[in-house]
Amino acid sequence: MEELISKLKQEVIQQLNLEDIKPEDIDSDSPLFGEGLGLDSIDALELIVLLEKNYGLKIEDPKDGKKIFHSIRTMAEYITEHKKS
Amino acid sequence: MTMNYNITGYCSIRNQVAMVDDRLEHYEENFYTFADLIKSLYKKEEISYPKFFKMDGLSKLGFLTAEMLLKQKEKGKYQGTRVGMILSNSASSLDTDMAFHETIRDRRQYFPSPSVFVYTLPNIVIGEICIRNKFKGENTFLISEKFDSGLLYTNIREALDHGRMDVCIGGWVDLLRERYESLLFIVEKETNISPDTEQKKIEFCPEEIEKLYLKI
Question: Which ipTM score applies to this complex?
């Protein structure tokens, strides 16, 4: 899990052009939206693209997004859970 | 009665050179790509605006030009509903359109990028500058085959004459791959000019706009 979290942090930085942020600056459990990284609605769409492009995962119900993209850890948990099936 | 307007400041970026009001502000001797130049200017200007890195190239170019133009002006003077923008270019948003096309070109790797897509209109650069500077006035983006001082003059003059704005940030922001040039200038009514800019003012007319463009 920790390996995936570390990889995800790098992918999020790259996908969202977070130029001045390093992986170690991102707290695995901090909220990605509102506070923390201060991401916006376009970033949310980019994260959906990231999951699909890098992990082949499509989010079928948009309502799930809030839970999945709460933090880097919740993203990693979702990937781990759904890649198995 | 014909109202007199003046250009009270300008900034240009082209060929690794940035000028503000006839003053050389930045020059890169070694070859810099557009992306490198933009990063270098951002750092040099000590701007702290995380959203900058999410902008497309055209917006970054216009944004930086506006920052350099406005940083030495009286703080808070240019704000609100009476400040408008009229810009132009020749490549529209083609540079970003092509970047977006790259994300959808291959049917097997079809991942349209939302953050690139939102910049596939040239007037977004105006939006970015207005958000940063709290300009709430009217704005227009014009496309012409090449720099057209007459087109800019006519449109800016019309907006000011009809009282739709008191101050207009006008100019040219053009980007296509490594070809970039920007020129932004402030046009305001004679009565709006503060004593410190009185001596620097330039008559607002097509000939003077053309001269500013030829300087870059």
Answer: 0.82
